[in-house]
Design goal:
By secondary structure, the chain is α+β, with helices and mostly antiparallel strands. Helices cover 34% and strands 25% of the residues. The strands form four sheets. A six-stranded mixed β-sheet has the order 8-9-10-11-13-14. A five-stranded mixed β-sheet has the order 1-2-3-4-5, covered by helices on one side. The termini are far apart. The structure holds fe (ii) ion.
Length: 270
């Protein structure tokens, strides 16, 4: 499934694999001024390629190396003749040769998004100039070590990849670093933006407020986790105390996304 929507000069491609009647784990790529931000999951490749026929792409940038963001790098480079993608230096080897980590993905990731093929990628510059816009590239580790976001200061746009997702997110991946995420959010809220374009597909014109709300929520959660930890609560007891129980997602994702991951990551710094 691919749905295309337009927000001023920005196109949003919302995409996901349809299994039976259901489209699972959708994500969004954005195209602005010839710059494609992320290439989507492998399983949506042919549909995405067809959708791009009327929309010229000159450059591709990957916000981070996760499979739903780089899955069609190879296809678009082969079929559209795109130059090597841009990504943060920490993501280069993971994008050039994804097999070692992609083979270990949990079933839900294999089913929903699929394994990306190897593709060409080079270090992203500090700024990306397109015909009409200038994007500052900001490194915001936490969701992954190589995560970047793109800031267009004049327009007040921030392309956030997977940094935002939602204000009160209380499950994270097992490889996320929540304390890094908090520091990245603290940096980001100082920047001049209003509208955020999220890889979840959400476009929020109250983006600064939403980002601040997420930061405040996580700072409160961090304080609560640390306080309970000092009182001798185990991680399981902290989850039950703060949330009542583990999230349903934990079982569905084989522990890939869980509250246990969130609490455990926070308590790496006490
Ligand atoms: Fe991600």
């Amino acid at each position: 499934m691919i749905e295309i929507s337009q927000y001023g000069p920005i196109l949003r491609f919302l995409m996901g694999r349809t299994i039976g009647e259901q489209t699972v784990y959708t994500m969004a790529c954005y195209l602005v001024d010839g710059l494609l931000i992320d290439s989507g999951p492998y399983h949506t490749g042919e549909e995405f390629l067809a959708a791009l026929q009327d929309h010229p792409v000159e450059h591709l940038v990957n916000t981070h190396h996760h499979e739903d963001h780089i899955g069609n790098n190879h296809l678009l480079q082969t079929e559209l003749g795109l130059p090597p993608a841009w990504a943060h230096p920490l993501g280069l080897s993971l994008i050039r040769n994804p097999a070692p980590w992609a083979k270990k993905m949990q079933a839900y990731r294999q089913i929903a998004w699929g394994e990306p093929e190897a593709s060409q990628v080079v270090e992203v510059p500090n700024q990306i100039q397109t015909a009409h816009y200038l994007f500052d590239v900001l490194h915001v580790p936490g969701h992954s070590p190589d995560h970047i976001v793109l800031l267009e200061r004049e327009q007040g746009w921030l392309f956030t990849g997977d940094v935002f997702i939602s204000e009160r997110l209380n499950v994270v991946r097992s490889d996320e670093n929540v304390n890094d995420m908090i520091r990245s959010l603290q940096d980001l809220v100082q920047e001049p933006f209003e509208t955020i374009f999220c890889a979840s597909g959400a476009i929020r014109t109250d983006g600064k407020k939403a980002m601040q709300a997420k930061l405040d929520y996580w700072l409160t959660l961090k304080e609560q986790c640390q306080s309970l930890h000092r009182k001798g609560y185990t991680e399981d007891e902290i989850i039950n105390h703060l949330f009542g129980a583990e999230s349903r997602l934990a079982a569905l994702t084989e522990g890939g996304m869980s509250r246990a991951n969130l609490v455990h990551s926070i308590l790496q710094e006490v």
